[in-house]
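As described in the Methods, two query proteins were run sequentially through the folding procedure within a single session, without resetting any intermediate state between them. The first query and its resulting structure tokens are shown here.
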Amino acid sequence: MLYRKNILTAVFLLFVGVIAAQGPKKAVADKIIAVVGDRIILYSDIKNSIADIVRQGGANTLPPDAECLITEQAIVSKVLMLQAEKDSLPVTDEEVEAELDQRVRYYITQLGTKDLLEEYAGKSVYQIKDDARESVRERKLAEAMQQKIVGNVKITPTEVKTYFDKIPKDSLPFFESELEICQILLYPKASRDLEQYIVTEMNNYKKQLENKVTSFEQLAKRVSEGEAEEIRGRSFQINRNEKNWDPVFLSSAFRLKPGEISAPIKSKFGYHLILMVERNGDDAIVRHILRIPPVTDAEIAQSKARLDTVRSKILAGTLSFNEAATKYSDDEAAKFSGPCVLNREGAPYVTIDQLDKEMVASVGKMKVGDISLPTAFTGDQNKKGVRVIYLKSRSEPHRMNMRDDYSKISQMALEEKKALVLDKWLKTKIPTYYIMVDNESSASCPRVQKFASTDTKGF
């Protein structure tokens, strides 16, 4: 097994933080540490990339030679980008702008509002995007070139076994027990009388706000539901084109004028009062108050009965679990990614610590292949629901082996093969580019000196 840094998976690390790294207290001097063709790499780029990794919680994963590693990756990325330009690989202005918009929205979500982002960055959103535009274009070109080089690389079972056999037996990783868990969810609806009661209360809240009896923030902290108390009533940024917002909430918000408060709006989460704070085209800053109509034991019992009928059909073999989830589940994700719980990487294998407490209690009593009786649970935004759980598989804690972990080993072998293909390509292409590395970097990072053109002496 080759124990080395995987350039393939980390090559674009330098550009992950082109927006976030634009801090107001940027004290790193813009010293040129490398030149690739007609493109330069600044020392501040490297330091800001490391700072951004730390900000995103990656401090513990940084290797001791992180600065050298990221410099190496930056040089490789420039070579890939320049070759992509030579090969006329397509990257459109629309793709670049879409990614810039997505990144800005992400950081606004993290900080709360556009004003806070601009205060943090020390510049306007327009300037942030303008500063990052060329870096994003270069990164997308480099990605396109990388895909052209390794996109068709495949792995055979023989190569997977050869890869596994090269791993020293005392270095095989230990895996905790992993579960494949699928579920069908129902979210009972509150009675019409209770919904009407909530609507009446929301209309009373609106009158209080319009008569200035209380402020929106104070009222939200007192009555709003489904959020932590410390963030109730806070303003937040929304964008008309974002897909993760409830469409009814979005369309209702964008019908408001600045300072206007909506009538009670029903979304999939409950009833909202929306205050439009500020609007700029497809972006807006809003506040909201959310009330969730309470679900009684009677509605829970009705949903349990309905799910029990579905479970009986599955057990009788007249309906598969996946078909039942597609047809009956209120879990929107099940319609696209299937009914199984996914881990952080998007794979259907989870450890016990990734499950909610109620599911842990249910799964602890189940055998592989069991389908639970309908049970009540509390989901996101304190929403009450009912679900049946299917325990599809459960692995025992074990050392990595070919029988239990073939798919993981296959992916690791494929990534290494791609890295070797990329390394081979780089060895043939790098000599065709003018590359200079400054003397100080060469002395402290021998790994980057290998890239320097033979007729250059550094600077």
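Immediately afterward, the second query was submitted; its sequence and tokens are:
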Amino acid sequence: MSISRRKFLRQTAYATSALASASTLAACGIFDTNPQGSESGKDDVSRPVTQDKQTLYIYGWATYVNNQEVLDGFTKETGIKVVGDAYDSNEVMLAKLEASGGRSGYSIIYPSDYMVTQMRDLKLLAPLNKKLLPNLSNIDRNFLELPHDRGAVFSIPVSLGTTGIAYNVKAVNSIIGEEPTDWSYLWEHKNKLRITLVNDPREVMGMALHTLGSSYNTKEPETIEQAFKKLRELLPAIANFTTDAWRDPLASGDLMMCMAFSGDAISLARQDPNIKYILPNSGTSIWTDTLAIPRGASNLEGAHAWINYVMKPEVAAKISDSNSFGTTNKLAKSMIPDDLKAIKALEPTEFMVAKSDRITKLDPAVLQIYEGFWTRLITGLG
């Protein structure tokens, strides 16, 4: 079972206040409240700090730590048993590692790209020993020079994801008569659409900023306010702000269109040919999941062996298949299943990358501005 890959607020700076107001906002039906329940369910688990070298404890998104085929393959190849615990937000992972003071018991983690920057600045990551990673040559070099960790000093990007539009083909064609190609479609047909936007301030505000010709990482209060006002125009069409609870309503036609993260949307599209996932023509948000070693990891040798194993083309292809993400592994691309390769939006083209943005870390003062407008937006539905 897979939980939503991106169900989190983008920065710790406003996570606390968001949680404090969640019960009030949930009463309005605004936030999704994880109807599937938390699949991590292991936040209180303690792992031994001093470990034998034949056991590797990893902490990551459920799609990675619950992939039994991949875990068993590593054990068969190395003799090292893998114990995986799942989290459902980067912030949960960060808090646990911070509280441990470098003694979490985990030797592998899966932070998202922006979180690598934050953890690096907090000195929570151990530098990688590239001599123990011969399969690093399989990773497309473009991904090894990303702004969050230039030179891949602390992390290796393994999965490539995007934010785009998932829609019900029959519902859209029967009511509007033409399928979407860009974010602008939401505003052009707002009086006919029934949609959801993800429960993620930086993604939603960033999308609106992008449509205004600004960056997802804009710092100017006036420009952020313009994005808020633009989004407010969509309120009549918005059924909910949810990261997870859109799949069944979209498949049934109760919803026509949803802002969604690629892994979730493509997984649904692979099951239901009436669902499509597209990347907006004007560009979108692009992100990566990474592998990293936390400071204080006790099994450094096993951790590097895991990273090297995951970078094997056949293993990377299995991971891509199971979570419906793109892969950074250039040799794995030809090995992923045909039905997944056939989805054009699986990986952005170079042209799309040039028009798109990566969400980056912002100062707390700027994040408070985003949070203020986000709260005003979502309470507009209550």
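The first helix runs from residue 12 to 20. We note this only descriptively and draw no conclusion about the first query from it.
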